[in-house]
Write a structure and sequence with these properties.
Blueprint (H helix, E strand, L loop, with lengths): L12 E3 L2 E3 L5 E5 L6 H14 L3 E3 L17 H14 L3 E4 L6 H5 L4 E4 L7 H8 L5 E4 L6 H13 L5 E5 L17 H8 L4 E3 L1 H5 L2 H13 L4 E5 L17 H17 L1
Parallel strand pairs: 3-4, 3-10, 4-5, 5-6, 6-7, 7-8, 8-9, 9-10
Antiparallel strand pairs: 1-2
Helix pairs in contact: 1-2, 1-9, 4-5, 8-9
The structure holds phosphoenolpyruvate and manganese (II) ion (MN).
GO biological process, one term: aromatic amino acid family biosynthetic process
Keywords: Transferase
GO molecular function, one term: 3-deoxy-7-phosphoheptulonate synthase activity
């Protein structure tokens, strides 16, 4: 079902007033995690003002350490709902547990499946039974074939609105947090009809590399980017070192405008 052989035209996923895929380019931005009402509303206003088209923010966070900040959970979802009301931006947020799919889907415009859950097949089937678009992040060490087969689980469960997200893979390189595989963009576009978003924040782990890799992603044909933005990155409870401040994000949007309008 994910294959272009089966479905030759590009899939365009609609959510609220946005389309992902086709001619549109989406700029999804916001903090790694919802940390407080003030932090999220400040971030949401700033990214909206700078030109983001969708808002991201995790209420449930898949942290490597059980002692790290785990997210505000249900309270975080309430804050995201308020931010959507206030800014009009559709919300992308992660769901980690099949038992919480209904709760997260009640607020999210797009359900995010994190890298660590790319092969959580029960979760893939559960989001496949909703009517919400699903942003499927590539697994930490997943091949393109494994990633497309994960998408297949969602499609096969009855949900045709799948968006792929390249977020870097684990390689021998340690300078960057992950190795952002931009060659995956033309590869999945060749193999599949699904839209592809690139996350240069997790893909590099380093703030100064986010803008150049965002530009490169769009030049490679990505349908959009997802970027972490925090009002005060030095105070972030997660992923501060890869988060842009609002001014840096505004500069990035100005840089990519010509690429977007040329495409
Ligand atoms: C995220 O986008 O918040 C996230 C946790 O990313 P990943 O699953 O790609 O590590
Ligand atoms: Mn993050």
């Amino acid at each position: 079902l994910a294959s272009r052989d089966f479905h030759p035209e590009d899939t365009v996923v609609e959510t609220g007033n946005r389309t992902i895929g086709g001619a549109a380019v989406q700029i999804i931005a916001g903090p790694c995690a919802v940390e407080s009402r003030d932090q999220l509303l400040e971030a949401a206003d700033a990214v909206r003002e700078a030109g983001a088209t969708m808002l991201r923010g995790g209420a449930y966070k898949p942290r490597s350490s059980p002692y790290s900040f785990q997210g505000l959970a249900a309270k975080g979802l309430e804050i995201l709902a308020e931010a959507r009301e206030r800014t009009g931006l559709p919300v992308v947020t992660e769901v980690m547990d099949q038992n919480l799919v209904e709760d997260v889907a009640a607020v999210a415009d797009v359900l995010q499946i994190g890298s660590r859950n790319m092969q959580n097949f029960a979760l893939l089937q559960a989001v496949g039974q909703t009517n919400k678009p699903v942003l499927l992040k590539r697994g930490l060490a997943a091949t393109i074939e494994e990633w497309l087969l994960a998408a297949e689980y969602i499609l096969n469960a009855g949900n045709s609105r799948v968006i792929l997200c390249e977020r870097g893979i684990r390689t021998f390189e340690t300078y960057t947090r992950n190795t952002l595989d931009l060659s995956a963009v033309p590869a999945v576009k060749h193999l599949s009809h699904l839209p592809v978003i690139v996350d240069p924040s997790h893909g590099t782990g380093r703030r100064f590399m986010v803008a150049p890799m965002a530009r490169a992603a769009l030049a490679a044909g990505a349908d959009g980017i997802m970027v972490e933005v925090h009002p005060r990155p030095q105070e972030a409870l997660s992923d501060g070192s890869q988060s842009l401040d609002p001014e840096q994000f505004a500069a990035l949007v100005r840089e990519i405008r010509p690429i977007i309008t040329a495409s």
